[in-house]
């Protein structure tokens, strides 16, 4: 995360103190006219700034998109541009500034308070980092928004969806079995040292050799340019050659069996595609925050099976 983002989060924390009196649930805050809630028809989900909404954060809200669509709302989503494809796949329409003006309700993360506080819309803020959350995060979001709108969410399984149609330009030789390796992170860098990066690489190399797996290395072009290390165990270097949509495609391939990464976007894709991922967890400074992540975010939905089959920490 950039220093500018950390500074913004600091100012954000100060700004949101004024929202306490607008609390409508453990981690939900509403600015607007409560008498109008039952009449809401047009809803916009708003999170277009990558500094406050990383790729993985988008996944947490996809079940809410499907739920609100099922309930008949006129729904638009304004995500970061590189994640628009994911919500289009879920059947949502991408919103515009005009849709914001016409919306009955704007739903966003608490981090966006400074960006929207001057809007005249009814706005529902969701704090996805709240330690008051006692369910898997995706289910918590759906259940609490449903409660706010007086909707029934019983039986709705809030697991982020795979892409409805997964296509990509990357061709894999299916005579091999692969492990996806990503040893980069774009947030929480203050909790990561060289030892962590080395540990991921050492583990990946050893595990790939033991299981006779070919290693696919993924990351951004900037990651590649900044990384002076040599990875002699990598079979296919795709750093700088993949978009988020390409990563969905790779995970959809049967020949991709495992993943190795930090607790990041890649990790969440493995959860979605029901494939095991080995994770180097960066921890949290507060034990309660660490416990929240381990219990309700990794993964952010009920996996319906043993956690060992989903994630293993290294």
Terminal-residue CA separation: 23 Å
Class inferred from helices and paired strands? alpha/beta
Tally of helical runs: 11
The helical percent reads 25-40%
Q: In sequence order, what are the helices and strands, one letter per element?
A: HEEEHEHEHEHEHEHEHEHEHEHE
**CATH architecture grouping of the largest domain:** 3-Layer(aba) Sandwich
Query: What is the radius of gyration computed over CA atoms, rounded to a whole number of angstroms?
Result: 20 Å
Uncertain segments of ≥5 residues (pLDDT<50)? Answer: none
Tags for this model:
alpha/beta, Rossmann fold, 314 residues, 18% strand, 2 domains, 6-stranded parallel beta sheet, 11 helices
Describe this entry's structure for a reader.
This protein is α/β, with parallel strands linked by helices and 314 residues long. It has two domains: 3-148, 3-Layer(aba) Sandwich (Rossmann fold), CATH 3.40.50; 178-313, Rossmann fold (3-Layer(aba) Sandwich). It is built from eleven helices and 13 strands. The chain has helices spanning 3-16, 55-70, 84-89, 97-102, 113-116, 137-148, 194-211, 221-226, 244-252, 265-272, 287-297; strands spanning 23-25, 28-31, 42-46, 74-78, 93-94, 105-109, 123-126, 178-182, 214-217, 234-237, 256-262, 276-280, 311-313. The protein has a seven-stranded mixed sheet with strand order 1-2-7-6-3-4-5. Strands 10-9-8-11-12-13 form a six-stranded parallel sheet, with helices on both faces. Helix 11 links the parallel strand 12 and strand 13. Helix 2 (55-70) crosses helix 6 and helix 2 (55-70) packs across helix 10 (265-272). The longest helix has 18 residues, at 194-211. It is globular and about 60 Å long. The two termini are 23 Å apart.
């Amino acid at each position: 995360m950039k220093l500018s983002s950390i500074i913004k989060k600091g100012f954000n924390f100060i700004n949101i103190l004024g929202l306490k009196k607008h609390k409508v649930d453990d981690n939900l805050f509403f600015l607007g006219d409560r008498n109008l809630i039952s009449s809401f028809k047009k809803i916009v989900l708003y999170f277009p700034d990558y500094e406050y909404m990383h790729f993985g954060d988008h996944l947490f809200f996809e079940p809410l998109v499907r739920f609100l669509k099922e309930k008949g709302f006129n729904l638009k989503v304004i995500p970061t541009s590189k994640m628009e494809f994911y919500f289009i796949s879920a059947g949502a329409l991408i919103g515009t500034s005009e849709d914001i003006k016409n919306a009955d309700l704007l739903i966003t993360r608490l981090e966006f308070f400074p960006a929207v506080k001057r809007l005249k819309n009814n706005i529902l803020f969701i704090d996805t980092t709240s330690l008051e959350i006692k369910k898997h995060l995706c289910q918590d979001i759906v259940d609490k928004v449903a409660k706010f709108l007086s909707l029934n969410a019983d039986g709705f399984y809030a697991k982020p969806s795979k892409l409805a149609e997964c296509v990509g330009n990357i061709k894999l030789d299916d005579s091999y079995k692969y492990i996806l390796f990503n040893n980069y992170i774009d947030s929480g860098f203050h909790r990561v040292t060289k030892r962590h990066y080395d540990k991921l690489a050492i583990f990946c190399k050893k595990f790939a050799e033991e299981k006779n797996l070919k290693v696919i290395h993924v990351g951004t072009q900037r990651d590649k340019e900044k990384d002076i290390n040599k990875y002699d165990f990598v079979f296919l270097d795709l750093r700088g050659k993949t978009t988020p949509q390409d990563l969905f495609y790779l995970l959809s391939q049967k020949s991709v069996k495992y993943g190795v990464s930090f607790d990041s976007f890649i990790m969440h894709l493995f959860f979605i595609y029901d494939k095991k991922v080995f994770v180097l967890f960066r921890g949290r400074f507060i034990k309660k925050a660490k416990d929240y992540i381990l219990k309700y975010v990794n993964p952010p939905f009920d996996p319906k099976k043993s956690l060992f089959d989903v994630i293993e920490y290294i």
